[in-house]
Amino acid sequence: xxxxxxxxxxxxxxxxxRIDLFLVPIVLIAAFLNLFKIWxxxxxxxxxxxxxxxxxxxxxxxxxxxxDPGGYVTIDKPPVVxxxxxxxxxxxxxxxxxxxxxxxxxxxxxxxxxxxxxKRTFGVWAGRFxxxxxxxxxxxxxxxxxxxxxxxxxxxLLVATWMLFRAVRTAKFGWVLxxxxxxxxxxxxxxxxxxxxxxxxxxxxxxxxxxTWKKKIAFLTTATALMLAVSVSWAVVVDSTSADKRPYMGxxxxxxxxELAFGYNGINRLTGNTSVTGSSHKQPxxxxxxxxxxxxxxxxxxxxxxxQSSNQRKSSSSQKMQAPGGGNQNGxxxxxxxxxxxxxxxxxxxxxxxxxxxxxxxxxxxxxxxKFKGSYTTKQRESLFWLxxxxxxxxxxxxxxxxxxxxxxxxxxxxxAFAGAGAVALWSMYKQHNDWKSWLLPGGILTxxxxxxYIMSPYVSSIGVAPIAGVGALGVILALVLAIRKxxxxxxxxxxxxxxxxxxxxxxxxxxxxxxxxxGNSMLPSAGPDSSSGMGGPPSTATNSxxxxxxxxxxPGSSSxxxxxxxxxxxxxxxxxxxxxxxxxxNNSQMPNSFSSKSSSSKRKxxxxxxxxxxxxxxxxxxxxxxxxxxxxxxxxxxAAPYIIKTGKPVMAMGGFSGSDPxxxxxxxxxMIKKDEVKYFYLSGMGKGGxxxxxxxxxxxxxxxxxxxxxxxxxxxxxGPSGNGTLYEITLK
Length: 733
Prior knowledge:
Elements: H1 2-15, H2 23-35, H3 46-55, H4 59-64, H5 80-92, H6 96-122, H7 124-136, H8 139-144, H9 150-170, H10 173-190, H11 198-208, H12 213-240, H13 257-271, H14 285-296, H15 310-319, H16 349-352, H17 356-366, H18 378-399, H19 412-432, H20 440-456, H21 460-463, H22 465-484, H23 491-517, E1 580-581, E2 585-586, H24 615-623, E3 633-634, H25 637-647, E4 652-653, H26 666-674, E5 680-683, H27 692-700, E6 703-704, E7 726-729
Parallel strand pairs: 3-4, 3-5
Antiparallel strand pairs: 1-2, 5-7, 6-7
């Protein structure tokens, strides 16, 4: 206890010291990467931005995270992050940047937290290098520059980590409760993904605390119970509320938060099963694939998804590079093939894996000489924590059937922590030992440089040969020189070691800047020269911006004169929702945008959804509204979101996010029409899963509105994936 109290006093004393001047430029780098040009993203992820617009209008919408102002259906995630975004929009006004700002600040906060966590045990230089590695991990700023959840999730988990470390140092049970309660808060951000860190929390507390096993079990049991209580608190309230008193729980099949948490946002991620289950409205996957395929034919220039577009599949096949372990495919959403070397395959490696070889060598060095039956040093205990975070998450992403590239931000903290702690540890071993440990530093530098050359090789046409050859040559030279100079410990050797670290961070730094340089994608954020496509991987074959995004995809009611294309985007096999992309994207309609060629001063309407509304359609609907609650109804959120954002009026996404939710029945729709809640229906043929009978009834009992009254004839490149559809009117007396 005396030792622990002295540590607390030491911490308080260190906090009073002046600011670490080396940390200032690191924070400025993080601020630049996370904040610069976010004001050019007008819509961000339109699915979530529409929800914030709706949540600003009433506490009912705010509490339930309603997608639409009418409170018809929620978004597909719990509300905590969107509560924060809504508060930000309330303070700063409703803008794309104001809903992005909390995540950008969270990204910067994660850099600072990692510095604090690593510095205290491994030293100030370890903290600095860990913070810099975190800031320059490409997927970190790519995600933080959007209104997706993951950046805030990681920040929250790092706050929980700080609380846990403090609990061990102070031996105060209250901090244990706070740490696990914070994980419960994180659960209400992205559900089961928050629990991926639990192995690290349990292992660390068991190993690091000097109390009896009886107390350990009692404390962890109590803390876990609190975590579970906090986790399900919102879900219990929502599921206990009568269905007619709240919005439908989006992307669930039984209108249940708990089903959403453990199904769609839980086990289905591991298994890759995104088919609709538990509904009488279920449609065969093949039917949905055909629907998606037929619809995408209308989008003449839609080639944003390089892994799905048939033309780009042909091109990318010639660029394929054999991945370690035999993986040679992009996989679903460019996430590679499941296997032990998946994180080294293209599409994932350039997002997160730049320093992985160095991390592996660092782990070996940090655990060298550990005796599993003996006592552990503080460094070894905290190294065990980061390892218990890294391994389970890495295993999940190596075998999971369904995730997106930006989920890999979950790996960033342990990788950055090991990079910082390992750099100092391996340098110390290099200088102080003549045995095998002294070879870990040059070995780590050499293998890491080799992997970085491998990662960059598919991008020769985009970045040129020089940076690839430069990293490879410098990595080899510096590793060899360090190996040769092992016996000569002087200032030159110190400079060589520092130069090696700079070389290893040079290309991750460039990759981290690509969302700024080339344009980002708020729907499916990724880093790389093709970052605006949102499908990180080898560059597409698009020759200009109009061929690499949503140009050519029209909002409801626009017409470009093109109705077919060879660039068919196929949904994943077995997906009855058309291959939906959780968190606001759908493979059949919501592909990434392309704004890399836009002026930096111009607003870019991104988000992978309808970035423009058809003003003629909006004028027609507004003029002919006779008091109906909903401006119009449509199949899914794709067509609804931009109209909600622009007008703040209720627009009904009948089938929820992807159009596959079994929300609406014919009888319920009849009742709504009779109560004058809705009379206009825009149908584009998408998202029929779970509502085909409703759509059939609409077509059979409605009056088709002549397209000349509402359809734009402009051939200008209006972004938006809805394509051409039909407007119907129904009035029942």
